[in-house]
Amino acid sequence: MGDWPLLSLVTFLPLVGAGFIFFIRGDEETVARNARGVALWTSLVTFILSLMIWANFDYAQAGFQFVERADWFEGLGISYRMGIDGISLWFVLLSTLLTVVVVIGSWFSVHVRVKEFMIAFLVMDTLMVGVFCALDLVLFYIFFEGILIPMYLIIGIWGGKRRIYASFKFFLYTLLGSLLFLIAVVTMYVQAGTTDIPSLMVYGFDPTLQKWLWIAMFASFAVKVPMWPFHTWLPDAHVEAPTAGSVLLAGVLLKLGGYGFLRFSLPMLPDASAYFAPLIYTLSAVAVVYTSLVALVQSDMKKLIAYSSIAHMGIVTIGCFTPNSLGIQGSIVQMLSHGVVSAALFMCVGVVYDRLHTRDIDAYGGLAQNMPFYALIFLFFTFAAVGVPGTSGFVGELMVIVGIFQFNQWVSFFAATGLILGAAYMLWLYRRVVFGALTKENLKALKDVRLNEVVAFAPLIILAVVMGIYPSIFTAPMNASVDALVSHVSTAFEQAPNAPHLALGASAPASLAAR
Amino acid sequence: MLHTILVLCPALGALIVGLFGRYLGDRASQIITCGLMAITALCAWIGVFTYMGEPAFKVHWFTWISVGGLEADWSLRIDSLSTIMMLVVGFISFLIHVYSVGYMSHDPSKPRFMAYLSLFTFAMLMLVTSDNIIQLFFGWEGVGVASYLLIGFWYTRPSACAAAMKAFIVNRVGDFALMLGIGALFLVFDSVSYDVIFNKAASLADTQIVLFGGTFQTLNIITLLLFIGAMGKSAQIGLHTWLPDAMEGPTPVSALIHAATMVTAGVFLVARFSPVFEFAPSTLAFVTFIGATTCIFAATVGMTQFDIKRVIAYSTCSQLGYMFFACGVGAYQAGVFHLMTHAFFKALLFLGAGSVIHAMSDEQDMRKMGGIWKKIPLTYAMMWIGTLALIGFGIPGIGGFAGFYSKDAILEAAYASNGSFHLYAFWMGVLAAVLTAFYSGRLIFLSFHGEPRADHHTMEHVHESPPIMTVPLMVLGVGAVIAGFVAFGMVEPEGNWWGGAIFTGPENHVLHAMHEVPLWVSLAPFFAMAFGLGLSWVFYIAMPGTAPKIAAAVRPLDNFLRNKWYFDELYDRIFVRPALALGRGLWHGGDQGIIDRFGPDGVAGTTWGTALRIARLQTGYVYHYAFVMLIGVAVFVSWYLFLQR
After folding, report:
1. Three-state SS at B398
2. I want to staple B403 with a disulfide (CB 3.0 to 4.6 A). Which of A411, B190, B194, B392 is the partner?
3. For the segment A282-341, what is each residue's pLDDT rounded down to a tens digit?
4. B621/A469 touch (CB, cutoff 8 Å), yes or no
């Protein structure tokens, strides 16, 4: 196994599958059936292959593994380079798993252009895996931006009524970010003469230049996360996207921002990261409180969950810029957990949307009576989103809140308000949809979850529980890489001693002093 | 092994019946959950006889979280405190499982109910056996979830759903502080494990810390955060509003969760952290003050309520106040002693009330009861036992019911202590004892005596409950009589009840001092009780009709008490409505009004026309995008060529 270009295989296998689907011919039904079949098998094999990456992953090594290299633009210092470390490992697996889940989950719910739908998702799979494996800035940029194309198509073709507005908004936001990011890429290349990510990580840019580069990258990553106040595209995009699109959008695409911070901003621009950390804390703290309050008054199920995603990602960005391994690992765990839980919540919405074709919360009520299994699954993920211990939601939140508490208690305080507000909006949603009396006539005919839906939910439930009670499976492989990152950036954070404490005009370093 | 079985049996029951209950059927579900609970109860009894007074030891399962120095294990800490808690939780939960079989016999979702009860028991056992604060938090939140599910068990009722949400969210306010407390513990102790924290606490007694931009005495701020968490779970004043509403749940739930076990978790937390609280004088003063205030506040409200369960709920709130101020004055042992006796007699009272409600065809309003004591003599007798235990009936110097020992111990400790607010706590405690006796007597007299006030139809159906309900009642009745006498050793300064599980500081001699208080202090609770009970007899038996007249005479005060000091209205005005208004404001004003208007929509407005002209929308955007990327590549290449030159 060791000699195989495993990463490239996992990356491009879905593309091969997409090619097969492209050439399927016949009447509509045959095409749809075959397209589903090919997509399922391709994504399944890809997922199993990605498990092989985990199986062969060396936990003790902090640097990149499975490195592949091929010359690309010879002489320009640009090459095709792939590799993963403890930080990217789980994102690769998350991407391949969620692709399988959406293919199964949308088995019966997509009827138009099934062929194109499956192609779009397999292409997404390739791009998602590629973006987390790329070890060259140009390669990364191509995957990073390319991923949006299938997403536009998914929203634009299979989306809801206002899909024009939504994809336009999505486009405008990301456009600005991509342009600035491109400028940063070019500048870095000009400075360092290479686009090799591991080399850039240790290059050491000039502190003033770092700040400009940091802002340019921030523009791109903050939109992706999304951070307040660059978040307004997300609720609209989610609302208009089909269920499968929302699952990948929430599950993987939002993680690109957090991953970008950890892969680029922190290691390449440590001084600027320390300098701007208070900005991140402030925006994130605002995001947690602001979007939670907004989530409280939503009447559209998907919008509510979209806003809750922004609040959860606020915790992630706080963790990314916490210079200890508790915070950074917490942010990764929180991203993985959010990838599983919010994906599942969007699937929960999808289940009832497929049956009733409305996302209006008030149209539901009392589903516990005729959809008991659905009620149970939804309940589980509601509590996982609320962060009840024993589910994945708790572990990441705890690590980030305790991690940042060591530096700035006010940030911790605002992050922890999510505990209260999160419970309020999630339980309020659950109550209106699932609890109550079953009085609406059209609801009485709804059937409980189908087999394919149960199969799609099952791995997510298992993951959320395993991550909740034995997170070491997930934290052990990332320990070495995160520790290396922390020691790499901690000098910068120490040299800006007030940096982590400036946010919200808060405290001096927490310290113990004998009276 | 014993303890692993003890803790995991309820989890197994919850899992099996929760997932497969509908296939197993009602009877099998009940047998499985009750059977597994019986094993737990048996193990708990074995544990008491084997491990009381023994030094603490651990049952290690596996590592939970191990990141960046934060090490939390799944493990059980077995010492006298957790052993006694396991008995209270395991045994009473078993009795309530059995009682529920009868009580819920007409409900269509029996398996679901039994699964929730077992889930609760598991979480509560994890809480009391935790060996680190993170695992305690697991149990803490777990019982919160179970409580939410059980309060909202009858989910078709809007009031039940609202009460369930309220319980969880108000509790979360406390949990929020507890979470920050965990952060502070880890910051100061570099560990979340009890052993490390307790060993190191004394050495930090005189240190200060900068947190939230202010300087605090280290252990005061930590314990304060922990105690706010405890206030939420134990429904202390300010965070108590969820408890009376929680009575929307089925009565066995009220007995198990909202009287005997979950609500006492806060008291357990304070007792468990006694090695830290002992060095936090300011927090202890705050604990005493809050406990004493809750104790009197809840008792005043309890006097005016007419819903039989709400009276008992406020009584619980008040009794929890006693337990807290006992801890606050340094007599943690007395607090846990009262916790234990209270678990028996309060569960008894609730189950008795459930039996009454059952007999009265689901009527809960005491104004519509009366005159039924001859028809349900066994329930009536059990209610008297519970009442006498609650009001602490007994003859000083000779003996009495369970509450007699534990409440007297608390009041004597409050008087004898030298902690802040100890006399305030003592007098509030005595006054609350009067009120306790009064509202308890009122409850008995209103619901069982006098003229029948229910309609003819209901009165004809009044019947004694089946044995499956009355047998657990009688077992609890025995507990309510003898628990105080049997476990009095808990508050004896000599003897080896605790085996070091509860720490008392070098300055703390309250357990000795409480046995040397003046005679009038020892007699005060007795007279308070006798006076309160006598007064209720006068008001509701001897001269019925007096109470409404007095209430009419002091209408504003009556309204104030009947409306529970207007806490709900206040919170609605200052938290709930502003939060919703703010949410709406931020959404319409912030997101749509400012960000979108000046951000994407503004830009979009100018490009909109162009966009619409492109025939097929999706290709239009891909085209756009590909175009941008092309430009990007072009810029990049030109730059490179430019540099080459």
Report:
1. coil
2. B392
3. 999 999 999 999 999 999 999 999 999 999 999 999 999 999 999 999 999 999 999 999
4. no
Q: A427 and B629: CB-CB below 8 Å?
A: no
C-alpha A62: how far from chain center: 23
Nearest residue in B to A379, CA atom: B149
Q: Which residues of B306-334 are buried (b: 16+ CB within 10 A; e: fewer)?
A: eebbbbbbbbbbbbbbbbbbbbbbbbbbb
B488 and B370 belong to one structural domain: yes
Across the interface, whether the CB atoms of A168 and B584 are under 8 A apart is answered no
Query: What is the separation of C-alpha A343 from the centre of its chain, rounded to a whole number of angstroms?
Result: 9
Q: What is the pLDDT of residue B205?
A: 85
What percent of chain A is modeled with pLDDT above 90? 51
pLDDT attached to residue B641:
54
Residues B546, B417: one domain? Answer: yes
B74 phi and psi, to 5 degrees?
A: -90, 105
User: Same domain for B437 and B355?
Assistant: yes
Residue A211 contacts residue A275 (beta carbons within 8 Å): yes
| Residue B581 shares a structural domain with residue B544 | no
**Predicted TM-score of the model (pTM):** 0.91
pLDDT tens string A166-208: 877 777 787 778 888 989 998 998 888 888 898 888 888 888 8
d(CA B224, CA B276) in angstroms, rounded, equals 11
- Cα dihedral A47, A52, A55, A57, rounded to 10, equals -100
In chain B, what residues touch A157 (CB-CB under 8 Å)?
A: 618
B598: in domain: yes
Question: Are A430 and A421 in contact, with CB atoms under 8 Å apart?
Answer: no
Nearest CA in chain B to A508: B213
Peptide bond between residue A226 and the one before it cis (omega within 30 degrees of 0): yes
B535 & B633 share domain: no
Listed by number, the residues of chain A in 134-153 with a beta carbon closer than 8 Å to a beta carbon of chain B are 145-146, 148-149, 152-153
- Using CB atoms, which residue from A169, A329, A511 is nearest to B600? A169
CB contact under 8 A, B617 and A229: no
User: Do B165 and A469 lie within an 8 Å CB cutoff?
Assistant: no
Domain residue extents for chain A: 6-514
Q: Which one of B556, B577, B595 terminates a domain?
A: B556
Which of A167, A232, A292 should one mutate to test binding to chain B, selecting the residue with the greatest count of B CBs within 10 A? A232
Query: Do residue B551 and residue B573 come from a single domain?
Result: no
Q: Which residues of A touch B161 (CB under 8 A)?
A: 431, 435-436
More confidently predicted of B603 and B460 = B460
Three state DSSP letters for B474-543: HHHHHHHHHHHHHCHHHHCCCCCCCCCCCCCCCCCCHHHHHHHCCHHHHHHHHHHHHHHHHHHHHHHHHC
- Residue pair B128/B89 in contact (Cβ under 8 Å)? The answer is yes
What six digits make up the tokens of B309? Answer: 């369960």
Do the chains contact at A293 and B582, CB–CB below 8 Å? yes
Q: Which amino acid is at A349?
A: V
Size of interface A-B (CB pairs under 8 A): 236
Which of A288, A293, A425, A485 is the best substitution to test chain B (most B C-beta atoms within 10 A)?
A293
